[in-house]
Amino acid sequence: MRTLVWAELRGAWSSWLAVLIAFIATSFAIVLALLLLDSMNATIATGQVPAVQAPALQFIPAWNLALAAIGTLSVIGAVTGLVVQSRRGALARLSLAGATPGQVSRIVLAQLLIVSIGGAVLGSLFAIALQPAAMQMILGDRGVAAEAAVIRVSPLSIAIGSIGFVLFALLAGLRQARVAAAIAPVEALRAASGVPNRRRGVARWIGAGLLTLAIIGLAVGTTTLAPELGPDGADSVLQVSVICMLLSGAVLSLCAPLTVGLLTRAWTALIPSRSAPWVLARAAVIAKGERLARTVTPIALTIGLLVGLGTIVASTVALLAAIGHPGIEGTTLVSMLVLIALVLIVSISGGISVVLMMSRQREAELALAGVAGATPRQQVLITVFEGVIISITATLLGLVMTAVGMAVFISGLAALGLQAPFVVPWGDFAGVTLVCAAIVIAATTLPILRSLRRPARQVVAQLAAE
């Protein structure tokens, strides 16, 4: 069994390497938040921090930990699911060679355990190295001298974060291991090069419904309770708005690929272009609904959080200006990133990992296009257009998340007797979407350039042999 595990791990090294990127980022976010929370408590205990700033300094790492945990739900599920689907052919051959469903399941879980432990170790090392810089950023944002920082590297915090992450990864991978064990060998061999669209289970729709009810409950609860919280009412409205944005992203993820596929099919149908690269890219993206959904979700979380929080801040500034308030002192990009930095790292790494994981599959698709007569330039354009389609769909879903968060924010402030305008910072919106699009296009295009130097038939033959 040990030999099979390591052999499969080596055979799928490119897919697991992509998973490792997401795992490092996720464990880094969790461990760093725990280390910051411990160090911040030690810093406050010295008495060098103004009492008025202590609650905010304790809140920031705890808030980041909660957001990172929510973001991790989507990212780990996406990357572990695609590993199994990208290795359907290899898993089928194990079954044909006599491996039982239980053995196939244990092989997948063993590989996931190895990669998650590696991600936890590397993520913890990065967290330890970057903890001082993170402490200085948080303290500086609150106007506290960096010299007051007490940096503590707590073995207990590292152990809790690392072990918790590994257990969480195994829990997320348990369902995928069962999926791997249930693959019909002959059917999987026929579909070895593709990622099939699985029919959404009833449990996923139930989960989406429960999360929707949770969003409604949070919105109603905030509207009802905010007036009773006094000066803290506005802060509570802001926090709940961001949480609702994240939860709405999880709802969209659970409803995918139906929602993502329908949205992509709808807006791409409005593009009148009939060029071969665009037509092929659109057809490939729509046909690979599962791949599209898992790729779009983390990018949508990133765009939704950045644009949503920017819109909330811009709307708040406009409200304060309308009532004659001088404004929010120190409201900068750094202030925004301090609140959502870790969940952004988790989301971006998840999107990049999913895109990179599917590079082998794209090589096969482009090679087939080359056999059919597509030129190298057209093959590159196909991947570029695929990145564009992913980015635009993610942006549209991010705007849905922003709309949900703003709806909660505006209704909560209305309960406080404040009428906040809906102000979209178009410059920030354009910058965020362009950066995310550049990252996605680079991730879809750069990994396949090497395969274009080889004859298309050779690429197809090699991938078929695998």
UniProtKB/TrEMBL annotation:
Transmembrane segments: 12-37, 65-86, 107-129, 149-171, 205-226, 238-264, 299-324, 336-359, 380-409, 429-449
Membrane topology label: Multi-pass membrane protein
UniProt entry tagged with the keyword Membrane: yes
Main subcellular localisation: membrane
Domain of life, source organism: Bacteria
One family name in Pfam for this protein: FtsX
Keyword field contains Transmembrane: yes
Protein keywords: Cell membrane, Membrane, Transmembrane, Transmembrane helix
Limits of the ABC3 transporter permease C-terminal domain: 66-180, 338-455
Family: Belongs to the ABC-4 integral membrane protein family. LolC/E subfamily.
Name under which the protein is recorded: FtsX-like permease family protein
Organism, as annotated: Microbacterium istanbulense
